[in-house]
Amino acid sequence: MSTFEPEQTAAELLAEVTRLRAENERLRQRNATAQARAAQALSRATRLAQVVSVLGQLTDVDEVLDRAASEIAELFGADILVIWLGTRADQPATAWGMRPGAPPPVLSLSEADTARLVEVPILVGPVAECSVPEAVRAYEPAHVAWIRLSHRRDDLGTMLLVRRADQPFDSSDTLELRAVATRVALAIDNGRLQRRSQERLERLERLYERTAQLVGMLELGEIARLLASVALQELPVTGAEICIERPGAGAEHAASGSLAGDGSTEGAGDAAVRRAPLTLMEPATGWLGVADLDEDDSEAVDLLHHIADLANLVVGKALLFDATRTQAQYDAMTGLANRALFMDRLEESLQRARRYQHLVGLIFVDLDKFKQVNDTLGHAAGDELLVTVAHRLRDAVRATDTVARLGGDEFVVLCDRIDSTENLRVLAGRLSTRVQEPATIAGQEMRPGASMGVADTETSGYESAVLLAGADAAMYEDKADRRRR
Amino acid sequence: MTVPQLDAGTMGVGHSGSPDPRQAARECVQAALAGRTPQPGDLLVVFTTVGEDVPAFFDEAAAAAGAATVVGCSAYGCYTTEAPGVGGCSAAYLPAGDLTFGVGTAESLGSDIAAATEAAVVQARADAGGSGEHDALLLMSDGLAGDQREVLRGAYRAAGAQVAIVGGAAADSLTQTGTYQYARGRTLTNGVVALWINSRRPVGIGVAHGWRPVGDLMVVTRASGNVVHELDGRPALEAYLEMRADAEAEFGAQDAPARSLAERLMDGPLGLPTTAGGYDVRHIFGEGPDGGLVMFGYVSDNAVVQVMTTSHDELLAAAQEATAVATRAIGRVSRGALVFSCTARLANLGEKVVEEGPAIARGLDGAPACGLFTYGEFGRSTGSSGFHNATVTVLAV
């Protein structure tokens, strides 16, 4: 502490004032320096909070990394900040400060640095002592910091900060970068979750649309094709196929993508095919198969079951529709077309015949002595006789002809596009011969008999009623003849 | 007026105080050319405060510049080292020499300022024929467009870490009604101009502000965009004024209660300590609706701030320092400099503003400079930040 003494001379006083001024200036400087240090320290201490605040303001998942990179680079005085996610070493998720269009930096840590980074989450040092990606070297880096990004023991990626100025990353930087890395990892993890949720939502919407489309479809082939394509599109698989088998009515098979071999065997070829059975209305059976499904991917397995459930629903509905349609158009006992279907086909056939001048013929068939079989052997025997005759008629005509049961023991054969009336008569004769072959009905040998009547458009014209009446009348003539014989 | 004899490579600067935009344009360009005929590839930069018919000013300047590439913007004030006044308009003519220039523009900056700037920079680089040995990027943006950090962010994204960035946010006469940018033969009002400079030798950038902190540190406890709502958990204006009162001695007689709030805000900006040990200064534009402070530029939540003060001498020393830093970086005798100076310096320098030109001239060892007063400066040579307030930012070639 300086004090003034009365005996001091003016020169001494002046010297003292000068000294005091200098001391004051020195103290002011020291104070300013201390204050600047405090400001710097506090500023550093709040960097993490600033990063948290910035990351918290971001809602768009895609923006998180780009924004985080620029903010962290700014707060830590870095020129370049690169983040690689997962194992994609040659494709950084963001490369802040690196010119777009230039080769992307490849995550290339020396073995020693990789090992060190497993032990500690952050490595800092001058470029001479640390790994530096080749693409970054062009930017004349001086100091680098490598940080492992992990969350709940999950390794999410790696972050690299580069300073071009000769300003080393110090212990305070290291400490704060560790904390920043944790926060960035959390943001990445949140981003991934959000992206996954978004993807799920979009998939749900797509499935909803597909479901709406599928439930409106009735044709099994179309349904199978769409289901196979939905499975391939929505599941992480290389191929999908669906097969629906109906004994007596054939099979529907559709495939999308690539499947091993012909898909008939599980695990054939390179791809393992997993089949989920479909629960269908008996006697139909079916399955949904996918190739290369990761069995540990529980989400994918659940989705496969969901698509199989959807297949059960829409295939079951189509099968039910098919059965209902069959009931409405076919005779339940003989499997032949019923009167309604026959009349539809007759009208269609006559229309075509009129337009293209074809000949259409009808053969009326009425069993002889059917009532007698019913009365003596019982109705079951009568039914057996009807089924036998029905099958014989169906087997004896062309695939394009329609054999229908009109009711009781009356049958009719619609022959589309015949060459002549004579051919029609030949066919009627052949049918008659076929019907009359011996048959065992209710354990008894018998020779069924049938009266036949033919009519065609050449003689009766294109009116269905006239044609039917013509064939009917001819049949009665035949029956009368047969009785007379 | 005497026409100085210049060697072929030296930057020529000119100034005019004419109120007629066309005459002003002709006068300042002719003074900058000093009898030389611009060649294709040469550059002419013009700044204007002439509020009447700004497009006519730029058109006339472009006509007078002949074959040179012309870029420019509106300003709150313009000067040259030879005409240190602050009004009128100024021009700088830079013969290409070993430099190659490319120009890009974007307008209607809208909500994605960064993307627009990025596009302008990509265009400028292509126009310059790609990257060179030592690239620099000069930006002139609409100072009323919004967060100017986004201009730098977009430019940096396109240019990368090797490119030095410099420039300023175009200003008006504080009416906040509209600014102008000019390039590629067009006057823009809400645009950004990017000038890519390819150089075989390093270009120099210097940034200094001359402000120092007073009082205690405060933490921004609530901020959104460019509004600081709370400091240390209290309404920001109240906390700020209290801090100023505590540091009254530092502001001296200037802080008399008679001065308006706007004046008191102008000479006491906030400083944000940087990790490198310096301060980024952010001027206060005014009082927010909830007792907050509306800032010139973005201030982050959790940022640390301090009230800043300065003096005329410190402000002028900063101009000389920024210029000296830029000149040192080029490592040779400078051909001249462009200076981007914060508009708030005018208010703080008062009549002493005429000394800014001479201070810069001292830093340039006699080479000429042409400057303007901006709504924010861009200056970046290392690190990825570089939007400034309250600075003198110098590009020396």
Automatic annotation (TrEMBL), chain A:
NCBIfam families, alphabetized: GGDEF
UniProt keyword list: Coiled coil
Protein name: Diguanylate cyclase (GGDEF)-like protein
PROSITE patterns the UniProt entry points to: GGDEF
Coiled-coil region(s): 10-44
Organism for this UniProt entry: Kineococcus xinjiangensis
Coiled coil among keywords: yes
InterPro entries hit by this protein: DGC-Regulatory_Protein, GAF, GAF-like_dom_sf, GGDEF_dom, Nucleotide_cyclase, Rev_trsase/Diguanyl_cyclase
Limits of the GGDEF domain: 358-485
Pfam families the UniProt entry points to: GAF, GGDEF
From TrEMBL, chain B:
Domain FIST C-domain: start-end pairs: 236-381
Domain FIST: 40-235
Domain of life (superkingdom): Bacteria
Region named Disordered: 1-24
One Pfam match: FIST_C
SMART domains assigned to the protein according to its UniProt record, in alphabetical order: FIST, FIST_C
Protein's name according to its UniProt entry: Small ligand-binding sensory domain FIST
Species assigned in the record: Kineococcus xinjiangensis
